[in-house]
C-alpha cells in the first residue's frame, strides 16, 4: 500500500535543536558498504495482498478500493497521444499541505479495522514489521545512494516493530526551498497517471495474465526523453534502480514509463518488466545489484529487530544515515519522534470484543 501527495511551501531558515529527551545508550552502527552485501540473493517470498484502502484528493481515508482504476493506455499503433502534462497545473492544481505529518496513520487505521480478520488472528502482528513501501524502498537503494540521507523512527508495541520516516533537516530545507520547476515536474507525474487511468499511482491491468494482485497491478512513471547513450546509462543506474525497488517489493510486474519532451508533452512510452530491469546494468561496473539491495535491507531489518527490544510505544529508536557513513542509532522517550498515535495504542490494547474507537483528527 502506498500514498502519494503533492508539495508546496515557501522557503525559510531552518534551525534544528537537539531534543532534550535523548537517552544515553551504546552506539551500535551498521555499515552500508555495497561490498559487504554482495552475497547470494536472500529468501524473499512473493508478496500477497492482505487488503486495501483509498485516499481521495483531500486525503480522506476509505477502507476500500474505490480509488483503484483500470489501466487504459493509448493504442500502440495510433498517433502519439500528445499528453500535456502541464495541463491544470496553474489553475486547477491543489497541492496538499506537507506540514501535516501523516506518518503511518492511514496504515494503522486499516490494521485497527481489520485486526480480527488477519490471517492467523491478531497475534499475527507480533514479530511483524509495519511500515510503508516507500520506507523499504529507501533501504533497498541505500548502498548506492550518494546524495540523500534518511531517518527512520522505530517503536515496538505488542511485539510488532513499527518504522516511520522522519524528515531530515536537509530534506526539510530542500522541500521548503523547492524551485517552481521541480514542483511542476512532480505534478507532471501525477498528471500522467490521470491520463493513463484517472486514478492513483497503482492501477490494475484488465489484460494482465492474472487478475490476482499484485500480478495485475501496473506502476506508472514519467521521465525526460533521452537522446544519448550517456543519458540512458545514467537513467539505468539511478532512476531504474528506484523503480525496480518500488515494484519488486510489492511484486508489481511492470512499470510503464511516459517520456516527456522539454515542453511537457509525452512523446513516447516504454514498458519495463520489473524482473528484467537489472539486465540494463548487469555489465555496468558502476551499476547496481539486486542482491546487494536486498541483503542490506535484510541486514537493516535484523539490526532494527535486535536493537529495539523494549516494548513501549512511547520509546523511539531513531536510525539515522548519511551517505558515506554507517547507520547510527539514538534513543528518545516521549519526544517529538514519537509516532504511534494515542487512538491506535489505546484501541489495540482493548479486548478484541470491544468495538474500536474511530480516530479523530485531533487525536
Automatic annotation (TrEMBL):
Subcellular location: Nucleus
Pfam families: RAI1
TM region positions: none
EC primary class: hydrolase
Catalytic activity: a 5'-end FAD-phospho-ribonucleoside in mRNA + H2O = a 5'-end phospho-ribonucleoside in mRNA + FAD + H(+); a 5'-end CoA-ribonucleoside in mRNA + H2O = 3'-dephospho-CoA + a 5'-end phospho-ribonucleoside in mRNA + H(+); a 5'-end NAD(+)-phospho-ribonucleoside in snoRNA + H2O = a 5'-end phospho-ribonucleoside in snoRNA + NAD(+) + H(+)
Keywords: Hydrolase, Magnesium, Metal-binding, Nuclease, Nucleotide-binding, Nucleus, RNA-binding
Domain RAI1-like: start-end pairs: 45-197
Record-level GO BP terms: NAD-cap decapping; nuclear-transcribed mRNA catabolic process
A GO molecular-function descriptor: mRNA 5'-diphosphatase activity
UniProt region (Disordered), positions on chain: 1-29
Cofactor: how and how many bound: Binds 2 magnesium ions.
Cofactors demanded by this protein: Mg(2+)
GO cellular component, one term: nucleus
Enzyme Commission no: 3.6.1.-
Family the entry assigns: Belongs to the DXO/Dom3Z family.
Database matches in PANTHER family: DECAPPING AND EXORIBONUCLEASE PROTEIN, DOM-3 RELATED
Record function comment: Decapping enzyme for NAD-capped RNAs: specifically hydrolyzes the nicotinamide adenine dinucleotide (NAD) cap from a subset of RNAs by removing the entire NAD moiety from the 5'-end of an NAD-capped RNA.
Protein name: Decapping nuclease
Biological classification of the source: Eukaryota, Metazoa, Chordata, Craniata, Vertebrata
Gene that produces this protein: Dxo
Amino acid at each position: 500500500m502506498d500514498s502519494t501527495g503533492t508539495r508546496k511551501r515557501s522557503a525559510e531558515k531552518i534551525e534544528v535543536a537537539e531534543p532534550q529527551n535523548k537517552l544515553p545508550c551504546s552506539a551500535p552502527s551498521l555499515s552500508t558498504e555495497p561490498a559487504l552485501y554482495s552475497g547470494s540473493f536472500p529468501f524473499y517470498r512473493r508478496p500477497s495482498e492482505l487488503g486495501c484502502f483509498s485516499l481521495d484528493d483531500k486525503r480522506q481515508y476509505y477502507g476500500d478500493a474505490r480509488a483503484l482504476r483500470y489501466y487504459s493506455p493509448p493504442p500502440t499503433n495510433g498517433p502519439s497521444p500528445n499528453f500535456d502534462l502541464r495541463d491544470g497545473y496553474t489553475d486547477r492544481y491543489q497541492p496538499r499541505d506537507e506540514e501535516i505529518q501523516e506518518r503511518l496513520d492511514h496504515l494503522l487505521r486499516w490494521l485497527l479495522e481489520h485486526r480480527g480478520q488477519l490471517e492467523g488472528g491478531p497475534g499475527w502482528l507480533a514479530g511483524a514489521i509495519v511500515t510503508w513501501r516507500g520506507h523499504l524502498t529507501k533501504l533497498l537503494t541505500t548502498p548506492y545512494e550518494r546524495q540523500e540521507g534518511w531517518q527512520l523512527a522505530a517503536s515496538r508495541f505488542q511485539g510488532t516493530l513499527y518504522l516511520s520516516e522522519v524528515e531530515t533537516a536537509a530534506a526539510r530545507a530542500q522541500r521548503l526551498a523547492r524551485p517552481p520547476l521541480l514542483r511542476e515536474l512532480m505534478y507532471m507525474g501525477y498528471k500522467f497517471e490521470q491520463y493513463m487511468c484517472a486514478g492513483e499511482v497503482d492501477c490494475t491491468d484488465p489484460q494482465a495474465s492474472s487478475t490476482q494482485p499484485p500480478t495485475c497491478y501496473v506502476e506508472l512513471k514519467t521521465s525526460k526523453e533521452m537522446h544519448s547513450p550517456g543519458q540512458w546509462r545514467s537513467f539505468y543506474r539511478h532512476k531504474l534502480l528506484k523503480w525496480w525497488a518500488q515494484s519488486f517489493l510489492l511484486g508489481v510486474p511492470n512499470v510503464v514509463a511516459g517520456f516527456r519532451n522539454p515542453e511537457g508533452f509525452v512523446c513516447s512510452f516504454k514498458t519495463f518488466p520489473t524482473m528484467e530491469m537489472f539486465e540494463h546494468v548487469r555489465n555496468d561496473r558502476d551499476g547496481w545489484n539486486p542482491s546487494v539491495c536486498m541483503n542490506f535491507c535484510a541486514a537493516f531489518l535484523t539490526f532494527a529487530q535486535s536493537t529495539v527490544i523494549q516494548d513501549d510505544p512511547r520509546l523511539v529508536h531513531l536510525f539515522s544515515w548519511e551517505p558515506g557513513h554507517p547507520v547510527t542509532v539514538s534513543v528518545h522517550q516521549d519526544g517529538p519522534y514519537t509516532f504511534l498515535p494515542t487512538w491506535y495504542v489505546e484501541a489495540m490494547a482493548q479486548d478484541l470484543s470491544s468495538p474500536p474507537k474511530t480516530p479523530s483528527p485531533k487525536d
